[in-house]
Amino acid sequence: MKNLALVVGMFLVAGVVAAKENPVPVERVGVMQFGTTLKVFYKGVESNDVKVSIYDESNRLIYKETIRKVDGFIRPYNLSQLSKGNYTVEVIDGAVRELEHVTI
Length: 104
Description:
With 104 residues, the protein is an alpha+beta fold. It is 19% helix and 58% strand. Strands 1, 2, 3, 4 and 5 form a five-stranded antiparallel β-sheet that branches. Keywords: Signal.
């Protein structure tokens, strides 16, 4: 039984060491809605200019900004002055484009 525990422990340690030596790049975009306020969460692989755009249901641009040289951010957007309807939040980091759809 001790030998089995030792072997399992060795594999766990080897897996952790391999994971640290070979990091997998991950990009994450998330949008949380609190009434008419959106929080956009972004975590990139490296520092980059990130473009955030909000479109209405007719695909008209409502808001646009570029956040410069970041690898992550959390940013609130107040949509209380907009009409009720469907909106699209677009986040672009280099060649990666993420879309999130919300309804207010």
